[in-house]
Amino acid sequence: MQPQPVAAAMPPADPRAAGPQYQQHAPPYPQQPGPYYQGPPPPPPRVFLPNPRWYRPDSVPQQAVVLMAVVVALFSAWAAFPGDGVGIGLALTGIAMVAVPLAAGGREDLVPRLPGAVLVAALWSVAAIRDAGWVVFLCTFAAFVLTPLALAPQRRFSGTAITMFMGWLEGLAESFKWARRGRRGKDGRSPSTVRNMWVALVTAGLLVVFGGLFAAADSTFADLIAGLLPELNPFEFVARTFLAAFLFPLVLLWIYTAVAKPVFDSQPQGERRAVSRFELAVPLGALNLLFAAFIAVQLRVFLGGEGYVMKTAGLTFADYARRGFWQLSFVAALSLAVIAVAAWLAPKREKADRWAARILLGSLCVLSMVVIASALFRMYTYSETYGLTRMRVWIFTVEIWLAVLFALIVVCCWKLRASWLPRAVLASGALALLGLAAANPDALIARYNLAHDHKLDIDYLSTLSADAVPEFAGLSGEDLDCILDDPMTDPFEDDRELLSWNLGYERARELYKRYDDGENSDACPAPWDIGVSEPESAEVGFFHWDTCAMYDLDGVDELFGISANGDYGVVPDDPAQYAQELDPAQGGAERVLQCGYYGPGTAYLTIEAFEWPSASAAVGGVEAMQVEQESGGIYTVTGLDSETTSGYTAWIESDSSAFEYAVAVDELVVVVSLSDTPVSEGAEAVGQDLSDQTYELYLSLA
Predict the structure, then answer these.
(1) In sequence order, which residues have a C-beta less than 8 Å from that of residue 143 and are 6 or more positions away?
(2) Helix, strand, or coil (residue 646)
(3) Is residue 453 domain-shared with residue 578, that is, in the same domain?
(4) pLDDT higher for 649 or 527?
């Protein structure tokens, strides 16, 4: 029989109360009471305080608002950018992204925000009216920037600038928290979420079933459904789904912006630093005097006309206007910055200080407006000579807007208050863009260039949008076919999707249907002058812009040399190459050929050939030109050292040097003008060489 194991005795809980067998294991050292060592306390938990600009714990959205954000995001992803161009879909997208947040923001602030919302909606609507991509882009970009400002208006420049540079993105996290609060009821549950999902599914199912039956029953209704539902490949479907996922936070954030009404305006801290009246008056007074002196010179130039400019600068009036435009535009923009800083630092405690600020700042504003008028006149003169382009139309718009800004600043300088100025600046900018869209710039360019006697470039006309096509309706059938059948022009053969429709494209398509004969015309000759048939070479002779391409300009290239930017050689200035008949009743030349060329940097070459009735008349003409240059007192003039040739050389040696060589050969007077080039013997040699080439071409093409 096996012995049973004996259970081991458990030691007592307290060794001091145990027997000797346990007490012998007591520690050999005495236990002395002492302080218990504690490490450093743990760091407090990091607490992220909510942003007071966006935190609205009592605001709970309705589920319909969040659902509308989803609907707008889905609609925008499929409608804003269809496959064949933007149009009414983009306009409806922008209007929805303004209207839904405005409705969610409540009625209490609807009236103050309504004017800005209307302006923004009008900017979004341009996509449904115009086909010019550059106009639609400018208006759409401005509408995107101004939408948050329309939903949460700011009162100061600081808040306006922060909002324009997308400072509202900091509220993205709070907008999602706000949306999640709408999913819970008072008891923390969301009993209606599933029911709403079932409602959406049932609605979609009913529309699909009955819509499919109606489409099968009627082909017209089927075409309508096909237009509303664009064809999508799998890749496009995935891309548009990602676009919708990107747009949903944007729409939700704009809705929450209208609800939270964040304020980005900086609060004034203490008394701002102001300069003394003397410190303000000296620099602004000197600047006003400088502006006044420049304006006085400009008046002399404009009153003197092209003859005065030719005497003083050796340039045509159009080239003179082009060279000074950008500098004057920069002066106007820089004046805005100077006025802003001066108005901030101007003293306003005493009455004399306030009047000094009014007079100095107001005078600078008025003089700046005169400078803008000078820049506008320069651009107008240049456009009168060389025609309109999109860049020139845009420049006119910006300059006019700058003039409006200075007028607003004049009012602020008089009242010494600018609380309303940020909103006025934004409103004026939006109205300027709407005015540009209303003017239909592409059609304006086509109409202006057709009405003026300019040599037009078919390549540039081909780049104009469908907005310009109705302006070609008055052309002959051959010329109209040449435009509509140009390879770079949209033939308007295919119908656009419904969401890509815009009024400009529809008008162009109607014109195309009216004149399309089903056959493409032959390629247009180049160069091609719209409305003027290309003459035969025997009829053209010497006086035609093609002659300008026959010159050997190697000597000019060597004279101009290499610019600071590394440029070398001359290139034709196409708008400055033309031939025209002159009025014989004026007692001067009968015909003229002008050839202009751009050189490196600011260098420029002009060759002019005047045909007079006789050789004696030509000699009299060149002598009259010499007398006019000598009497002007600007040029240094000397006659040609030849007993058989009548002519002269004239030059200006200054920072902007100019050289002119004029000679009469038989009934022809040739004038070669070089600007921004060193005056040397090489310049006279170039002038003589070009005049010889001109006479040889005149004889060979006569």
Answers:
(1) 94, 120, 123, 124
(2) strand
(3) no
(4) 649
Tally of domains in the chain: 4
Q: What is the pLDDT of residue 481?
A: 62
Q: What is the mean pLDDT of the chain?
A: 79
How far does the chain reach from its first CA to its final CA, in angstroms? 147
pLDDT at 500: 87
Choosing from 439, 472, 493, the residue where a domain stops is 439
Q: Are 413 and 358 in contact (CB under 8 A)?
A: yes
Distance CA 99, CA 271 (A): 41
Judge whether 344 lies within some domain.
Answer: yes
Q: Which residue has the tokens 């006659």?
A: 639
Structure tokens at 532: 């003027």
**What is the structure's pLDDT at 521?**
45
pLDDT band at 489 (very low <50, low <70, confident <90, very high): very low
pTM for this predicted structure: 0.66
Residues 500 and 562 in one domain: no
| Structural domain harbouring 304 | 277-439
What is the rounded distance in angstroms from the CA atom of residue 689 to the CA atom of residue 414?
62
Angle formed at CA 341 by CA 338 and CA 343, multiple of 5 degrees: 105
Token pair, residue 413, equals 């300088």
Query: 452 and 435 share a domain?
Result: no
Amino acid at 476: S
pLDDT tens-digit readout, 183-235: 655 445 554 555 666 676 778 778 878 877 887 888 788 777 776 665 657 78
Residue with tokens 């520690």: 27
Q: If DSSP states are collapsed to H, E and C, what string results for 453-473?
A: CCCCCHHHHHHCCHHHHHHHC
Amino acid 389: pLDDT: 87
Q: Which of 388, 412, 439 is the last residue of a domain?
A: 439
Whether residues 595 and 619 share a domain: the answer is yes
The type of residue at 118 is: V
| Statement: residue 686 has pLDDT above 60 | yes
Q: In the numeric block, which tokens belong to residue 380?
A: 């107008």
249 and 109 co-located in one domain? yes
